[in-house]
Amino acid sequence: MKLFCFPLFFISYFSFAQPLQEFNSDREQINKNLMIGLGSWATANFIASGIGWAASVPNGEARYFHQMNVMWNTVNIGLAIPGYIKAKKSNTTLTFAETIRNQHQTEKIFLINTGLDVGYLASGLILRSEAKSNLEKQDQFNGYGNSLLMQGGFLFLFDLTAYAIHNRHSKKSLDNLLNSIEMSSNGIGFKWHLEPKLFSRNQLLL
């Protein structure tokens, strides 16, 4: 009986570890795609506004608009490149607890960023409002305000979409793994259901 249990244990363990590693690999691939999207937006904005900044009238609204876009997307590029490298080099052979912790942290980061994006949008509206009463800096406030509204609006959609993608990925894949784990009948350990493809209606007690 013991000789049978050991092969069963290892087969069951790897049937659980493999989808766990696939989940982590998929999560990091999502992050890489997101960083490519952010980097593409930032690069296109940097180039377009760099040209616009150079060609615009000094101290005009358009000049301030492009100036803020260049500064803003310098930061975005600085975040996208390291973020892509980190996702590419991330360890996908995580334990179940580490996987859950990393998944929750990833979703939390994008939710926090979404809240910050609302602040950027509010700042843009405040600057545009101040421009109405400050004629001396009207062009500057309007230019910076419009830039904040555009960049903040994009980042709001980006971070909210990123959260939704990760959350959907978690519910689709990670929840299935969680549902396969049950407390053992004696309350001491855990058991998980084996993949139907490998074993029919079998369970392994740990």
Strand-helix topology:
Blueprint: H1 2-55, H2 61-89, H3 96-133, H4 138-179, E1 181-183, E2 190-193, E3 203-205
Antiparallel strand pairs: 1-2, 2-3
Summary, kept brief:
With 206 residues, this protein is mainly alpha-helical. 79% of the residues lie in helices and 5% in strands. The longest helix has 54 residues, at 2-55.
Overview of this structure, please?
The protein is mainly alpha-helical and 206 residues long. The protein has one domain. It has 4 helices and 3 strands. It has a 3-stranded antiparallel β-sheet. β1 and β2 form a beta hairpin. α1 packs antiparallel against α4. It is elongated, with a radius of gyration of 25 Å. The two termini are 15 Å apart. The relative contact order is 0.13. The N terminus and C terminus are likely disordered.
- The amount of beta strand, in percent, is under 5%
**Overall spatial form:** elongated
Rg (CA only): 25 Å
Query: What characterizes the major β-sheet?
Result: 3 strands, antiparallel
Unreliable residue runs = 1-14, 186-190, 192-206
Helix content: over 70%
Tell me the domain tally.
Answer: 1
